[in-house]
Amino acid sequence: MESAQSPESPRSHAAGAQPLLRPEAPLAHPFSIRLRNLHKAYQTGRGRLVLFDGLDLDVEEGEMLAVVGESGAGKSTLLHIMGALDEPSSGDVYCASTQVNQLTRRQAAQFRNRQIGYVWQFHYLLPEFTAIENVAMPLLARGETKARALERAEKWLKEVELSDRASHRAGELSGGEQQRVSLARALVTEPRILLADEPTGDLDARTSGVVFDLIEQLHRAHRLTSVIVTHNMTLARRCSRILRLESGRLTVISPIAEN
Ligand SMILES: Nc1ncnc2c1ncn2[C@@H]1O[C@H](COP(=O)(O)OP(=O)(O)OP(=O)(O)O)[C@@H](O)[C@H]1O
Ligand SMILES: [Mg+2]
User: Fold this and answer.
1) CATH of region 62-87+104-252
2) Does the Cβ of 135 fall within 6 Å of ligand 1?
3) What is the pLDDT of residues 9-52, one digit of tens each?
4) Which of 17, 26, 27, 220 has the most other CB atoms within 10 Å of its CB?
5) pTM of the predicted model, to two decimals?
């Protein structure tokens, strides 16, 4: 269903404070993602590697999309392009009402900090800092006061059910706890887009389930639009849609066909 909202006047969740909003971004819903005619090629020692050759994708606002595919298919590259960590060779990338492929480096950093929550297979927490300090870091990076950043971080540690680990060093936490802290860090800036690259890839089956439950819970509670790359079909089947990336194309997977 089309939004009543005009594409010319995207809604902002912090009205008046979104210098990166591009009114021309043709998104009916402000927290959706749209890739159009995306091309990505790398020049390598062994010639040109074409990853995407005219790829299109729409991720609906509120969708929890799984992307699966063989190693090397370009799944991480796809997430990086959506989240302004990498640039396409050509094509248009719209995400959270922003034409991502037209941002300057500085704008891209600001866009990532404000609009995107990233979770990786490896947590990239700073091991010598406490859980709460790690969660507070994106807020400190954007100039929030320490008191305010720690207050928000405390709230997010509660959301991932780790309040009792707040003052533990990140390096002393279990793998599952570290991934929960990295989820809190991804969402502490209150983005509406979550990009997760094999978020359970390093965890055992039981812990993967726990972390995925949490992602699902946060996705619903905070009305996120989530794109989750995973090799785990059991987890992928819990998403609203599964796409397989293969030879630069995205195809819809019917969960039944995979059984
Ligand atoms: N900077 C780069 N220069 C050249 N080739 C690159 C570069 N970055 C990625 N590639 C290549 O692009 C292809 C896709 O990489 P990508 O990391 O997106 O795959 P992936 O689907 O995420 O794989 P995995 O499941 O192993 O994480 C790979 O063959 C990789 O070697
Ligand atoms: Mg990858």
Assistant:
1) 3.40.50.300
2) no
3) 332 333 333 334 444 446 668 889 999 999 999 999 989 999 99
4) 27
5) 0.88
